[in-house]
Write a structure and sequence with these properties.
Structural class of chain B: alpha+beta
Number of domains of chain A: 1
Order of helices and strands of chain A: HHHH
Distance between the termini of chain A: 31 Å
CATH topology of the largest domain in chain B: Ribosomal Protein S5, domain 2
Order of helices and strands of chain B: HHEEEHEHEEHEEEEEEHEEEHEHEH
Helix content of chain A: over 70%
Largest sheet of chain B: 6 strands, mixed
Radius of gyration of chain A: 17 Å
Largest sheet of chain A: none
Structural class of chain A: mainly alpha
Strand order of the largest sheet of chain B: 4-1-3-13-16-17
Helix content of chain B: 25-40%
Shape of chain A: elongated
Number of strands of chain A: 0
CATH class of the largest domain in chain B: Alpha Beta
Distance between the termini of chain B: 77 Å
Strand content of chain A: under 5%
Oligomer: heterodimer
Largest interface: A-B, 23 and 31 residues
Number of helices of chain A: 4
Chain lengths: 115, 339
Amino acid sequence: MSNFEISKIFKAYKPLEILKSFLTALIFYLLLGAIFLIPIIQVIYLYVPYMVYFFLAIYTFLAFTSVYFNKIFIKTLHTYNIYDKINYDKFKTNSSVVITAIIFIVMAIIYIYIH
Amino acid sequence: MKIVIYRHKILLGILIVLLISVSLISFIKDEYSLVAPGYNDNISTIITVDIGNETTGSFHTTSVIVVNEVSLLQRFIADLEHKVTLREHPEYYDYIDIDDLEVMGYQMKDDSFATSLVSAITKTGYSITYETYATVYLTYTYLDEDTLQIGDKVISINGLEPHEEYSEVGCNEIATFIVLRDDVELIFDITKHDLDNGTCAFGAYIKDYTEITATEIEYNIAKNNTGGPSGGLMQSLYIFNQLTPNDMTGGLMIAGTGTINVDGNVGKIGGIEQKIITSAMNNIDIFFVPYLSDSDTDNYIEALRVLETLDTDMILVPVESLDDAIAYLESRFGGAFNE
């Protein structure tokens, strides 16, 4: 995530606006994540030898969902104000990359622990 | 925040309905259990022996995944998946806390480590001493309250040997149990109940538990998430191979299943179909399996049926004892004590 864009957001918006935008995006992220993860985790028990493919599927889904997370986050920020000095598209891209990397690390730790 | 949520209210509504639906099919339990293919653990990652000789191959236990209470979703998929065995809960499940099955599994696993060490170390000529206690492995809901717990060592029943006296006590009679719990002696008067199915029972499953008291071999057992005693045979083989000069693996991946007792006799196990499938998927070369009778439900007979359906070069070796398994490996890779 570009510190430049994120710091612009923190400077431009009030903390409560950022928090509410984050929570709005989080609601969608958690809903989508839960709808996918809950049944997948149930099914994994029947296909343990293929666990790595399930982990790939979970990672892929969560990565794509993080793009939607950023979209909702920015959309909510826009309801408060839109600032020309902030490159929202650049922020979305970089934020998605960072979130995807974090998801990868978490998934890898979980996979290594299980094995 | 409210504006965005309002604009997406239809989507949110659909997601909430979907979430409720998947939660219902995922968390509502059915009275079935399932057995699914699992994995082959390399025993060297679980047991280490200080005198361990180098090996070119490896020994593996074979674990399956057991889900004691399946969800509706799991049951639906298990019905379609031929590699998974689905079975209705046996009658005794109505009289236990299902979570206790996991505790019992770990206790059986601990016992199997001890019996593996005893059976293997005894064969190598190193010294080992052990004690065996009648121990509570599972309690039932009709057991008298505030009496026996899982893990209790049963010293005597009515002052007599537990296994013999257990069946001698009559229906609705009260017996005096002396048990050891955390090294504290406790005494309970317990009724042998008359059950609806015409049998009588105290409400506790009591079986032998082995503890090693002394050995000249230093060993370490790592904790892992598997339970149950079915790794006994392979654990014994591994330990025996570690303590003898000749490596009997021949560079191969060797797995198997079967309980072991202190005399080196192999016992029957469950989930044989999934264990054969698991091992074939993991490219195991040799698989040892208990062969105790010619009945259709014998582990070896069942294993042969499953093996025929798989595309694998895995060799199935029937055994009744640790000696049989050692004899097979010695016939291929030389005597265990050959330098």
